[in-house]
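Page 37, top half.
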Amino acid sequence: MNRTDRLRAILDLLAETGRVEVEEIVERLDVSSATARRDLDALASQQLLTRTRGGATGQSVAYDLPLRYKREQQAPQKLAIAQAASELVPMGAVVGLSGGTTSTAVADALGTRADIAEPSPHHSLTVVTNAINIAAQLIMRPQIRIVVTGGVVQSRSYELVGPYSDVVLEKITMDYAFVGVAGIDPVVGPTVRDEREAAVNGLMARRAEHAVVVADSSKIGRRAFATLGDEGLFDTLITDDGITPDQHRAFEDAGLRVIVARI
């Protein structure tokens, strides 16, 4: 494992519980204590964690790492999920996209669809998003109308959060909302780590005819701090073929349609 891969792996470990110890890095990544400490110091210098005696803790938004550090994690799975999501969307639809790397991959898939890019006197698609990076990504597609919610920018995830978002979302309806999450559990449902993000994403889901969780299989079984809404708010989960038969069955028993994107 090279250094770049090690740093990403350490950030993944940190995201699981909010803290990581040198001994855990040594055991999980098969490196020396000196290497583990140097890697932690390197991440601390980038303000991605706070060093402690014997390890590190996440900063207040360490779970919401900059997209440049997250976008390659589970990349094949996210691309497959994004393609499956895009295939659900008919021409002329209104689509909500939350922030996050999987939703960004969905935006990519929609933005490169040949039918949507076809010249037309009318917009081929309307995208509603609270992620300024997604808006910037799609603005070069003239056939896609972009609606951006109001709010305060979270600098590490490029998402707009806060009550200003409600002003826009409460006045529109959507055909589909694709929402990325930090974890999804068949009992608790989808969760994220920030209550402000949960509020915006939950409202986006409520304003859509079909609310869809887009989550790679590494998110299955994880529970984060904030739930997104009441049971039954989401009707579909799109994940990759890393989902186990038992997990698949548990989500279907909970009332979710499960679409498995093959890699």
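Page 37, bottom half:
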Amino acid sequence: MFSYESIREQLKSVIEKEISAVSKLCETIDESWLKAVLMIRDCKGKLVVSGIGKSGNIGQKIAASFTSTGMPAIFVHPTEASHGDLGLLDNRDILFALSASGQTTELLDIMQYAFQQRISIILVTKNPTSSLAHFANIILQIPNIPEACPNGLAPTTSTTCQLVLGDALVVTVMALRGFSAENFQQFHPGGNLGALLIPVKNFMYKDDRIPLIGLGASIKEAIIEMNSKSLGCVGIVNQRNQYVGIFTDGDLRRSLEAQVSLEEPVSQYMTPSPLRISPEMTVSELINFFKEKTVPNVFVVEKKMPIGIVHVNQLASISGSSDIIN
């Protein structure tokens, strides 16, 4: 029977071996990596990723990551390729093959076809002198170290290295191609990733929903405007419609406690030079803003004029979950 300590040591052993493998992977970065990055960046077609077993699983993730960051990529199962899917490849493409041993027989047909059609081939393998390596234009070598399982057989350290290598290529190519947060949002319109990149201008309250009064208005007029918009504040604008102050429910409470006349000008009790944000601020940036400033709402200002207002409660509805603001 296993003890808690023996289980803990087993878990720790696997993690340490995987960390060591990734550390050794860093040491393998050479000119081949640079060539692979530039080849993928300059690809005029698509990246065709192939592998079998656990390498295939990693390959699917790599293809998905490239596609989601603006580089067209598909995963082709090598057996399906041998039964008709070779037609997916053309000479503008790059074949990206994963085989830890470099001897995967199922990859032979697609590798040979790509070689014959003069399609560029990148191979990720432990063995740079393997049979499949002879077909490759670029070989990316992962550390040839034992797997983390007790029998040294279950793909663990090798697949971790494949995954990390793939992520490194994806992010580097993404950076070289200038793939921005705006581009990322276009490819991720659904879910929290997409929600975090939505600009404020897409969901702010605007036009008649903005609580605004003039600089010469009274506290009584401020209360009426606050109540009609139900956002707990009112923005103050000057004669040029420039945003110059804010009067909040907190300011109102302090005024009432001080028994200030409601006919007094609100400008005497507003907060001058108030916080403001740009309409281009993303949800992700807005979350950090609200956490840092600890305010419930903020006006959106462009060229000194208020064009919208955002309340912290809107963030939960944008993502479909309150987790986004926790």
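Margin note: Residues 233 and 248 are 4 Å apart (CA to CA).
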